[in-house]
Design a protein that fits this description.
The chain has about 600 residues and is α/β, with parallel strands linked by helices. Helices cover about 35% and strands about 20% of the residues. The chain binds fructose -6-phosphate (F6R).
Length: about 600
């Protein structure tokens, strides 16, 4: 969702601000803007639309200041428009503000400020921030005091940057439930809502925690806790290389990230799985006694991460016989879940910033459950809330549609299941065989990649369709769900995933002559049953595309390597990712930035 960048230093701010915003494009947005301090005043430009458009209308020559803030907005309060775009500036032009998050009490504050004689020009919640700053500034003529009072009044989530000609070399920074990082480069200090935006300037970052603030003055950063007491903070090193956020010759990030999956999987499981050593997680251990008394496990996540959770459930239940409930984070919270010390709650989030997942995690902690976060982003909010964190090392995922992070999440979930089995039973042949399969997976993925031309050709045939179906049983149903989500989010084609046996209880009425149905068939135990369901739709005129590791011949058969059904989603999803990608390309769509979607969903 909204992206934030700030800079103060020796250089002209505009270049790093625009560059940073471009790197954050993947977060999803509908308008963009910048504000700088120069010649003792705020200069700003903003509009609805893409950053390219902002660049077209801004005259670089006029934006010469060395301090500035910038923003990409994903509309929450008020339509996408120039007025609602950030930065927001008070009527006296003293404070320019960019904000990510939602201010829950903005109506109350707005009402109060209107009564005090202030006016507003947008429908946003954010605009109360510069106006409140001005309100308090008028009282004491002290910017820092105004900052303190303003923050005290805000309720909700925020990552906020404020600049003012009253302190012309200063950026005021505040964070609460919305990500913000600060990096010190050779020629200035950078702030952003996400590491990639400023990765080219430094590998060392300060991660603000909720309630913390920073005042950046020239090249000095002073940190404060929630009570505004000065604190010291250590920077942390992020080892991502710059080329991890380049397209590296690929047309789109999504295509690049699909191809990076073998590497992402290998890096994630490096040090966790080896053929002859016991499985171990650097970050934590679970003992036998704890696992034996465990009543149940919850896996909580959203979207693709939730699908990885379903594959985890399959693995844990089959291997460990511990009951697992997988819940969508936005539902978990409102179901009054039954949790206690004998419940283990696992939260999966690529970004680590998904508001629903974070809220669900907080609830689990309140109710005394043990919590594990699985995240791809170092020091993200979810990792700070959970008792333990396991990182997926998929590298930065830029395309909105998740691919390599999903593969890495599945890798962690399966390894966790194997780990629990090993703790409970000691090493046995089943564990050894599965470990061997896991080690082989990167090579097997490369085998699947060899059929990319076939996937492209199938996509070409399907690109004019309006409805597609995906069916499977067991873990194949989980793959069907993920395949269907990939397709709809980037190609805008309606699609449904069903458990194969469920079709005849209703959805089969939708199958018409020529309807495409993907059948996922990788589990020999349910193979014949699913095959019968496919025959049922075929006899109603459907075109079947099979994704299978069984020995089946035919035109529309995508053959993938045979592997244990616990692991088969990792290979079976690849053709579906490619097909979704190539269908979207055929339709001329912006694959990396699908409409209405944001990479990081930081509002509930
Ligand atoms: C789909 C997709 C989303 C995310 C979901 C959760 O391709 O990317 O469904 O999986 O928004 O995001 P994270 O994992 O960041 O919590």
């Amino acid at each position: 969702m909204c992206g934030i960048v700030g800079y103060v230093g020796k250089n002209k701010a505009i270049y790093s601000l625009i560059k940073g915003l471009k790197t954050l494009e993947y977060r999803g947005y509908d308008s963009a803007g910048v504000a700088l301090i120069q010649n003792g005043e705020i200069i700003s430009i903003k509009d609805k639309g893409r950053i390219d458009h902002l660049e077209n209308i801004l005259e670089y020559d006029k934006f010469t200041g060395n301090i500035g803030i910038a923003h990409t907005r994903w509309a929450t309060h008020g339509i996408p428009s120039k007025e609602n775009a950030h930065p927001h500036i008070d009527q006296n032009h003293h404070f320019a503000v960019v904000h990510n998050g939602i201010l829950e009490n903005y109506l109350e504050l707005k009402d109060f400020l209107c009564k005090e004689g202030f006016s507003f020009s947008s429908q946003t919640d954010t605009e109360v921030v510069p106006v409140l700053m001005e309100y308090y500034y008028q009282k004491d003529k002290d910017v820092i005091k105004a900052f303190q009072h303003t923050l005290k009044d805000l309720r909700g989530s925020y990552g906020i940057l404020i600049i003012t000609p009253l302190l012309p070399d200063t950026i005021l920074v505040a964070k609460n439930n919305s990500p913000l990082v600060i990096g010190k480069g050779c020629d200035g200090i950078y702030v952003a809502s996400d590491v990639p935006a400023i990765l080219q300037y430094t590998n060392y970052f300060y991660f603000l925690e909720d309630g913390q603030k920073a005042i950046i003055h020239d090249d000095v950063i002073t940190f404060y806790d929630s009570k505004f007491h000065e604190i010291s903070k250590q920077s942390k090193k992020i080892d991502w290389e710059m080329d991890a956020i380049d397209k590296n010759g690929y047309e789109d990030y999504m295509l690049k990230e699909i191809h990076e999956q073998p590497e992402a999987f290998k890096n994630t499981l490096n040090g966790i799985i080896s053929a002859h050593e016991p499985i171990h997680f650097l970050e934590f251990s679970l003992d036998k006694k704890y696992l034996e008394q465990l009543k149940q496990i919850y896996i909580v996540a959203c979207g693709t991460a939730m699908h990885a959770g379903l594959v985890g459930k399959y693995a844990i239940e089959r291997l460990c016989r511990i009951p697992v409930i997988v819940e969508v984070a936005s539902e978990f919270r409102y179901q009054d879940p039954i949790l206690d010390e004998q419940t283990l709650c696992i939260f999966i989030s690529q970004s680590g910033e998904t508001a629903d997942t974070i809220a669900a995690l907080k609830l689990a902690r309140e109710r005394k459950a043990k919590t594990i976060a699985i995240s791809n982003v170092f020091e993200s909010s979810i990792t700070r809330e959970a008792k333990y964190t396991i990182y997926t090392h998929a590298g930065p995922e830029i395309a909105v549609a998740s691919t390599k992070a999903y593969i890495a999440q599945v890798g962690i979930m399966v390894s966790l299941a194997l780990y629990m089995k090993e703790v409970l039973e000691g090493v046995n042949d089943e564990i050894i065989a599965l470990k061997r399969d896991i080690i082989e997976i990167p090579r097997l993925m490369e085998e699947v990649f060899k059929n990319e031309d076939m996937f492209k050709e199938l996509a070409h045939r399907m690109s004019k369709e309006t409805d597609l179906f995906y069916i499977g049983r067991g873990n194949d149903y989980h793959t069907a769900m993920e395949g269907s989500l990939k397709l709809k989010e980037i190609s805008y084609i309606h699609s449904e995933a069903y458990p194969a046996g469920e079709l005849k209880h209703g959805p089969i009425a939708l199958i018409d002559k020529g309807t495409y149905v993907f059948g996922i068939l990788t589990d020999a135990q349910v193979y014949e049953k699913t095959f019968s369901n496919l025959e049922e739709v075929k006899s109603r005129g459907a075109n079947i595309i099979l994704v299978t590791n069984q020995d089946i011949k035919g035109d529309n058969v995508i053959t993938i390597p045979n592997i244990d059904p616990i692991l088969s989603p990792i290979l079976a999803i690849i053709p579906l990712q490619f097909i979704a990608y190539y269908i979207a390309k055929e339709k001329g769509l912006d694959v990396d930035k699908p409409r209405n979607l944001a990479k990081s969903v930081t509002v509930e």
